[in-house]
Amino acid sequence: MRTPLRAALALLLVVATACGGGSGGGSTIAPPLDPPVTQPDPPVVDAGPVAMRRLTESQYRATVADVLGEDVIVAGRFEPDNRVSGLLAVGASNVSVTPAGFEQYDAIARAVAAQALDPAHRAALVPCQPSGATDDACASAFIGGVGRRLLRRPLADDELPPWLAVARDAGAELVDFHAGLEVALAALMLSPEFLFRVEASEYDPARGGDRLTSLAMASRLSFFLWNTTPDEELLAAGERGELTGDAGLAAQADRLLDSPRLEATVREFFADIYGFDAIEQGLVRKDPALFPAFSQDMIHDAEEQTLRVVAEHLLTEDGDYRELFTTRQSFMTRTLGLVYRVPVRSADGWEPFSFPADSGRAGVLTHVSLLALHSHPGRSSPTLRGKFVREVILCQDVPPPPGNIDFSMFADDAAQNRSTARGRLEAHVASPACAGCHNLMDPLGLALERMDGIGVERDTENGQQIDPSGQLDGEAYDDAPGLGVTLAKHPQLSPCLVDSLFKYAVGRDPVEGERAFRGYLQERFAASGYKLRELLRLIVLSDAFRTTSGPRAASGSASAAPQQTTAVTVQPGDLS
User: Taking the domains of the chain in order of start, what are their residue ranges?
Assistant: First the structure.
């Protein structure tokens, strides 16, 4: 059996012409990386290495709720996640636990354990009545059951005695059986096998290569489709070895895909690619004098609005992914109504809402969440908005600007013909060092300029009429809804989603041996009518999802950071 750490092989989907140099004539977008695949069956896959991923904050919280109780509060600061290749899900394979982070996990674990074993909760978790302050048989039943769910595998016979000793010693010292269990539970929650998703592999004689073990598949399947630890049925199937076979894997995959809990992963995935962690961390701030309608309540409602639309369209309606950029269906709260300038009947909560056909809004790009997120504190930013579309929605790389650019010349509203964003950005394209990249980004962002720095609609800027027209790779549009229509037809839109979702599933960048399979996924996604649930099923039943080249090779680079977890490894008895 092999225990992996992390894999990171960078593979960019599309490379745009780099900024800089002396040519100012513009830039071209490279053709799609993957040629069309026309075979009906998936190609042979030479899969990449498995990854050891630290639980994200949302996965930690969901696991606590599922194992210890939905009303157990997880309070405290988590170590920040790391975005790699555009995804926190990939960055989870590149992070360790620092000493300061370990102290935070320690405090969180102690608080959670105290709640889970208080008089109001212990009956649901402890399957027996102790005979006194120490009771090895009762403690064994608790630790074996809860430890199996937290570590996502059964505890071996030789693992139980040290954990029992923790509970016994603490119970005797505190003269309280349940207080002893608290100490053992907190220690379990500090185990690297809880804080990290350790994916083990084994040799598969049928394929002549390595595959994930059945128990590792239970975890990978559950965290991918439900964003939480395996439930009892899935964990039991993993223990019986059913998840290395086609039939057993398909049965469990279909059960998870048919569950309402699938929404948790869909929301988490889109929150990841859209960068909504910045909203959750309170990093989106606006000048209150310029944007009095902005508040943290408003921006959190805006995030929720977008995720509700995504889940409703892709799951409830089983809609075409491309229509996310053209749909006028949405949801609204009173707080958001002030920004969208529409009436909202409900004083509290959400209500369905449709933007009128003559509205300047259609599709998620015109949502307040993305407009405010990709703007400056004091003004909108066509460049940031256009960069988001190129890099996140189309997976095209836009290089950073040269280091010697004087940005003051672009921010002067009083300069001649620079009272609008379009006028100011003409200075970008007039500069040879900037023109290549800004010709890629700015026209897309300018289509959204009729929405200001927090997303409020407007017709003018500094008294001048705003022109939202432009073109996307030769396709012209008149305004923001037109950009959405053009984007929905772009040949890189759905391949970008496929590649991002595949990276999210396996926790790393693709490798060369998965190139043809990614093309196959893109073709089958299109054939399905761009239905997300079908794409998820194709991924989880594929060899790319369940086979591996083995653990990532250790190195001395920063990419091997998870090896640092040995510095904070907790053994039974370390916690008191």
Answer: 53-197, 265-488
